[in-house]
Amino acid sequence: MLKKNFLMSPGPSKVPESVMLEMAQPVFHHRTPQYQEIFADVTAKLKQVFRTKNDVFVFTSSGTGAMEASVTSFLSAGDTVLTIDMGKFSQRFDLIAKAYGINTKKIDVEWGKAVDPSVVEAALAEDPSIKAVYSTLTETSTGVVVDLKALGAVVAKTSAILVADAISGLGADKIETDEWGVDVVVAGSQKALMLPPGLAFMSVSEKAYQLAENSSIPAFYFDLSRSKKALDKNDTPFTPAITLVIGLQKSLDMILSEGMEEVWARHEKLAVATRAAVKAIGLSILSDSPSNAVSAVQFPEGVDGGKFAKIIRDEKGVTMAGGQDHLKGKIFRIAHMGYCNQYDMVVGLAAVEEVLYELNFKFDKGAALKAFQETYLS
Domain 6-12+259-377 is of which CATH architecture? Predict the structure, then answer.
């Protein structure tokens, strides 16, 4: 049987052919006006995607590198921060902070649910010494999107800064960095920005810069002052991932030519139709605050999630993601982010139906595809 491969995981996501072609151009030296011109253009366009007038830094690292920078740049050992644990990836802020001797107060949220801003407000009122609140925009492991606008309003009343992990959400779920008072936003290249892994980003507000002045955590590669000096010269302090930055310039052009409002609307339309599709065959969505980047779908009783993941990837050629930790084997995660349109989703949903049928789950064949198209076209 002829098999084609379809990437529908929540990162890395599919990269446009035009971006791949840009990255295939000959490499040139980065300490040149040629590169500085490209880098200046990229950072200006990143501000438009981040919806900020603040500086946006570019690191050659995974998104976790920017998460670490968001800890080391603004805090000191012994400081206290508030972290929100609502999934596998939001846990990471807590782990990074503890690794640097920072005291953490953690809000535990049931996986599949979003944090209640009033709980954050109460925690900040109880301890005015809290220097920062660490949240996600989109929790990739559960398909949950957080109300960052409400969180920003809460944190803005205090001396703390709001730090958001938008690694999966940026470019898919709406974020208004400046308008919502989000002081630091971190992101990665391999999600809705339509690039391979390898670049990370961090925007920094004036409020965050003021906190950075008193930070005493030793840093070298992620030293914010060193990065700032280079950024002011349209450069990076260390060797950049030149080909990825060139690809980023192309992907940002694609995103901005479509328009951010239109990009968000496209993701929402795909997400809503996808959720309608899986519900039409008797499946349910884990999240009570669903993201437009990725849908976490719960397996019905009697379906072996491990077999599903293996068959759909290895036999059908469609890569999705499974659940993590206690959700392993209980959910699959289908992405509708970045370089993805309705025809990609039709392929993915057809594969879901086929595998569920082979695993003897009973449903009206074709119901998912019908529901997707009816919802999408309406």
Answer: Alpha-Beta Complex (3.90)
